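Hi team,

Filling in the usual template for the complex we talked about on Friday. All components are listed, including any nucleic acid strands or ligand strings, so the model treats them as one assembly.

SUBMITTER: L.P.
PURPOSE: interface mapping
COMPONENTS: two
RESIDUES: 613
SEQUENCES:
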Amino acid sequence: MTILSNPAEFVSSVKRPADIDAFWEDVLAQTARIPLQIDVSHDPLRSSPQVDVYQVHYTSLDHVRIAGWYARPANHAGQLPGLLVVPGYSMEPLIPKNWAARGYAAFSVAPRGKLRSNGQFNPGYPGLLTHGIVDRNTYTYRGFYMDSCRGVDFLLSRDEVDADRLGVTGHSQGGGLSVVVAALRPEIKVATSGAPFLCGFMDAIDLTDGYPYQEIADYLRLHPDSRQQVTDTVAYFDGISLAPRVTCPIIVNIGLQDSTCPPETGYALFRAIGSEDKQLHDYDGYGHDANNAVHTGIIEAFLAQHLEP
Amino acid sequence: MSTPSDTKPLDFDAYWQDTLSQLARLPAAPEVEEIPLRSTDFATAYGVQLTSIGPYRIFGYLSIPTGEGPFPARYFLPRYGSVADLVPQGTSNGQRQRYVTFAICARGQRRSDRPYSAGFPGQLTDGIDDPSGYIYRGIVADCCRGLEFLVSRPEVNPQRVAAIGTDMALVTAALCPRVTHLVYTPVIFFQALERAAATQAYPLEELNDYLRQRPEQRDQVSQTLAYYDASHFAPMVGARTLLMAEAGSSPLGPAAMEPVTRSIRGSTDVHESENSGYRDGAYSELWLSRELGVPEASLPPHWR
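RESULT (copied from the run log):
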């Protein structure tokens, strides 16, 4: 595929499945029937005088136990805004002390397959992106998305969290997951998405030659007959397919020289987002960092504006 | 009274010589098996298992270009985290067309996590009270074992072997003279304890967490970290070097890293970060291809 001189003009090949809403409503309903069984334990090693840190576990789809880090200000009065922090593909979920120090009750989830959530399910890296990819009912990300969405349920279970002030933030895979969670959980009031992965899967394997999308190219090289099945499956999981469901305020930042999550897919995602209040920050001269050195301040201000920590 | 973590221990050389001697006494016993899923028409991928000190079995991803060698080699050293990729995320898979690549998964990382599965956070302080039992001693040995394996391959041009990565790249280049080129991005092991005091960001925050719980261990932690400080390894590096510094007045910026830069014996270039993965990545890629004598740089499509 030829790289366009203006990636904003790229037209994605993603076709939104006609029954995508029914598919996800069914998965959400299946998940809701499983008791959360939350376990929260204070972690004195990771806590500081300013921030209390807790190790959290809960049950998600397929009865997989999911881990996460919960951090909140050590001293606070009244309820706090809740912030769900969703992780990148190969990075470890961070302990969200920085958000807690800013006045948020912040939960950083480790969806299935991540360290601490890989006791029952562990396809590995590389590998997770293509695990079960020929069937939307078995694809890894069916559960992975639910694990992330259940982070909202965890935050809502906390007395100190204000249910009317919930946000989600992430970069790379976390940027894709932010869109997914905002699309599937209407309780989310604001979202930020950086260099979003999981958007334009089948476009990206032609636009880039790097991992993680290369995992799908590897898979199709070995299983060329599965291309249509793979295309059909990922259409249900593509952020571009889910974006019309997003109605909350959202900002997206992309780098125009991103070799991991190509900017073409970021533009396509942004156009598909249903929110009236949406902003795109497209940074020329930046790669997968999407100008985080500067944009982090914009994210902090945007979340503070909407969540009032 | 605590001493700075960059004060060189008197037995620094003996400590590392003993580590390398332990490694030398153990046969590597390599097992090499093709990974068809990651093989292409231009390169074949292999999974490699080797024995390191402990003894401990470690894993690595090897890729060999199709065609007549020998080829220059890129040795990817482990970053701080559980995942090691065949080639680093964000770089072009096309580099496998021109280079032998080898990525080692050090003990504790995925595929080298039996029986020891590291926590992130957690690994940085595992055994840090005692230099002889610190987890990084084994990790350094793993990195050196990987280098030995790589240069033993007949497909590799021994005049063009680049170690690429964060702290472990510098350490490997220091302890293994067969590294001819080094691309080093400092992250943890340079004045670590002093820099930790000024941050709440992981991985250095692990040191703060640890010492908050065990303040009486500060001297021991400082002494252990001194065996790993970049300033002590730098004079042992004879490779042609590119040091990827952070921007401006950062504690890992060009000025702060000057003691390391000055000490490296090999000719050294310093690149000050432009806070752009694209600009920094392209600079590093062009430097490597030029220095390794490969006419065409392996740039991802969006960097061309």
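MY TAKE: The mean pLDDT of chain B is 96. The domain at 12-229 of chain B is CATH 3.40.50.1820 (Rossmann fold).

Thanks, L.
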